[in-house]
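Q: What residues go here?
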């Protein structure tokens, strides 16, 4: 009976270890996705800023020549 309890105990400990590893992988994956999202938003912001600079510069040149 003692060996049965030891097997059950080991099975529970292994299940807890598996759960802990799965949680670690999930946190790592979530962190990487968050990092990738922030990076993509930052790149999109820089591109949009550059395009707006170009568009507004052309607009201001046209307005200045009309005036």
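A:
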């Amino acid at each position: 009976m003692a060996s049965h309890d030891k097997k059950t105990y080991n099975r529970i400990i292994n299940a807890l270890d598996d759960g802990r590893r799965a949680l670690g992988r999930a946190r790592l994956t979530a962190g990487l996705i968050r990092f990738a999202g922030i990076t993509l938003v930052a790149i999109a912001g820089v591109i949009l800023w550059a395009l707006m600079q170009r568009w507004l510069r052309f607009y201001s040149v046209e307005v200045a020549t009309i005036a």
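A: Context that may help when evaluating the design: DSSP finds one helix and no strands in the chain. The mean pLDDT is 87.
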